[in-house]
Write a structure and sequence with these properties.
Elements lengths: L1 H6 L3 E2 L3 E5 L8 E5 L8 E6 L6 H12 L10 H14 L10 H5 L13 H4 L6 H24 L6 H14 L1 E2 L21 E2 L8 E2 L5 E6 L8 E6 L10 E2 L6 H7 L11 E4 L7 H9 L8 E4 L6 H11 L14 H31 L11 H39 L5
Parallel strand pairs: 7-10
Antiparallel strand pairs: 1-4, 2-3, 4-9, 5-6, 8-9, 11-12
Helix pairs in contact: 2-3, 3-7, 6-7, 10-11, 11-12
Length: about 425
Amino acid sequence: MLEWFRASKGTFHASLTHDFDKDVASTGLCVFATSDIPPNDTLVSCPFELAITPELATRAIREVTGTDDDLHTWNDRMRISAYIALHWIMKDEPKALAHREYINSLPSTISTPLSYCPEELELLTGTNLAGAVDDRRRDWQKECEVVRRVLRVQELTWEQYLTAATHLSSRSFPSSLHQLPQVGGGRPEIREDSHPILLPGIDMFNHARLHPITWLSSSNTPLSPPAISLITVQATSAGSQVFNNYGPKSNEEFLLGYGFVIDPNPDDTVILRLGSNIPSILESRMRAKCLNARNRFALRKDGEVDAELLEVMRVMMAPAEAEGHAEDERTQHEKEIWEIQSEMEVLGTLGQMMEDKLVKLQYEHRVDSRYVREENRRNCEIYRRGQIEVLNAGMDKLADRIERLEGLLDQGLGLSS
């Protein structure tokens, strides 16, 4: 792959090599430094013309399959996943399928929960991830059927589409990378108008949280085409693994998208959702306050509750007559009592929601361990433990807030304990 990469005007630092991490066998091939690398050195540079984009994938698919469908109904994942899979199916098509060396270098197996056996999936029972895995499998299987039917490639298997789509979800970068400043920047941001793209060479590096790395976008020059590069920020000693930084993500994101977890993970979260059966009158109140009850709200490791979630719950739980009450209908004293009691009710309801999730997470499911791979068992255990820790932190914070509100009622607003 590196020979093809360099022949295609990509650059890969002469002091870098691929090898397995003897301490962490599950990471697969890693990038190591064979000699000291100073700061501000270019580790890898991938020309944008080598990128796998939805546009490139569409052109290649139409050329090699002869379809007259413009694929306008296909999403970006379908286009790129089909392009990847066609390299495996049409092995004698060298021209339009131009990334054979790169795609052949990708792992032949995946480790995300979509590859779990039924016994391993039982390890996710009671977690948010269990439902997310089912949703993703259902969506991707529908996509696979569409790709197979439209392109008339019955050789395409579900396993091939799953592998291709997983490579995209775990290795893609935003297309807005080409708009990075040429003086170098931090981790690329995903903009609304971005598309997922694959950048051979750039995706070789494993993740390290908070690892400093510079992303550099270079323009066209007489000696080199426009490219995206990774630049060292600090010195790297010989024998050390060289990392990229995928950005702050929860273990739920890491496990679903990449197939690994971090232990411990300070960026861990629990996603809270309020459901979809919301009365229209409440929907109207939400819109008036620019709120959306269908959002996904993240509970962080420190237990802090998303402020928007609290606002949504206040609107949902407020009695209709509370909206627009005339000031003279209540004394200031009564108003303060009502506001504090209402807030305590909101916090109590949220606490019950967290406790319900906690009970599901702590329930021990019996699983036939004969069919469970150790690495998957470990990942699920770490993920589940992290969810429990976040929920406990959140419940502790809520209990503290409720206690302070009770104190206000007891001390200053005339309510007996």
